[in-house]
Amino acid sequence: MLLSLIAGLLFLLVVALPPHGSLSGVSQRGRTVPDAVSEYAPDGETRVAPHAAEPPAGTIAPTADPPAPPVPRPPEDRTAPVQPPVAPQPVPPAVVPDRTPDTAAPVRPTHRGTLYLVIDDAGYNMNDLERFLAFPHPLTIAVLPHLRWSTASALRTTRAGKEVILHLPMEANSGADPGPGAILVSHDEAQIRRRVHEALASVPGATGANNHMGSRATSDRRVMDIVIAELNARGLFFLDSRTSAETVARPAAMAAGIRFTERHVFLDNERTEAAIRSAFAEGLRVAEQRGYAVMIGHVMVPELARVLMEVYPSVIEQGFTFGFLSDLMAQSVAYERTGN
Questions:
Q1: Which residue in 2, 174, 194 sits closest to 183, CA to CA?
Q2: Per-residue pLDDT reduced to its tens digit, 175-205
Q3: What is the Cα 39 distance to its own chain's centre?
Q4: Average model confidence (pLDDT) for the chain?
Q5: pTM for the whole thing?
Q6: Which residues contact 187 (CB under 8 A, 6 or more apart)?
Q7: Is 3.40.190.10 the CATH classification of the domain at 113-337?
Q8: Taking Cα atoms as reference points, which of 134, 154, 158 lies closest to residue 144?
């Protein structure tokens, strides 16, 4: 009887065992439902779908059609299409404007020469001087020594941005009085040196000197050697006003090695505007030929001041410039030794 009971239990155990198949699924009327289904994604990736829902009891689950194989894509042609050559387009010609635009930089004229204006005889008063200090370009004021307004004229000229030189009184052939502190041919060396020193003391800031009158003194080599040596010792230059054709200022200056030049044109020998304009035009011709011109006028001539104020814009437009006499003197040795 015990054996019969054991045999019955073994039979029940065999009947309860599932049929051969996957142990990972649950049998549904002889069909195994998988845990997951693989599906083909259009972008080529394999995605995992969630568990399929079990059919209700008593129904037959439809058999799923196998997934359709992916349609093979034709290989992509990555070769760029050949474009037909493009014919070059003609370049339109440049358009030249009828006139220079207002914003364009002005065309500077070719430089034709430098003008060095020297205005003599300052020191008598300040009113005459102010007319020339209003000139908007460089010029040089030659101040007489030992006058009431000598020192004030020199200081005012410097403050105005102009240049000062000593207008040194020297003996004339005519016997006319050159003014206080004049140098005479009868003076000995000590007297000449002392008078040069005293004259410079009354004209502060002077960078050089030129002669006032002096037709007799500038023709005397002894006198000129002493005057030029005294100026040279102080680092000053000398401008020969050329009041005499017999002047020996040039050889004396060359022997001393001083910076030196000479006057080319007197602007106001005649005190009319027409004569002054004619003399100024002569100065322009000299400057164009030589590269520069030294022109001397006088502070007590208002006609000269008016002409200078009227002509300078046209002179600049023509290519001339104005300069301080000391700028010329920086090159004077080269100029004078070539005979210019």
A1: 194
A2: 999 999 999 999 999 999 999 999 999 999 9
A3: 78
A4: 80
A5: 0.68
A6: 195, 223
A7: no
A8: 154
List b or e across 100-125, with b for residues whose CB sees 16 or more CB atoms inside 10 angstroms. eeeeeeeeeeeeebbbbbbbbbbbbe
Domain ranges of the chain: 113-337
State yes or no: pLDDT of 63 exceeds 90: no
205, 155 contact by CB (below 8 A)? yes
Neighbour-count burial of 308, counting CB atoms closer than 10 A to its CB (0-12 exposed, 13-18 middle, 19+ buried): buried
Instruction: Give the separation between CA 218 and CA 273, rounded to whole angstroms.
Output: 30
How many C-beta atoms lie closer than 10 Å to residue 330's C-beta?
A: 11
The distance between the two most distant Cα atoms of the chain, rounded to a whole number of Å, is: 183
User: Which value, to the nearest 10 degrees, does the dihedral of the CA atoms of residues 109, 112, 113, 118 take?
Assistant: -70
16-40, pLDDT tens digit by residue? 555 544 434 333 433 333 333 333 3
Average pLDDT score over residue span 303-326: 97
Which three-class secondary structure state does DSSP give residue 201? helix
Q: What is the mean pLDDT of residues 294-302?
A: 98
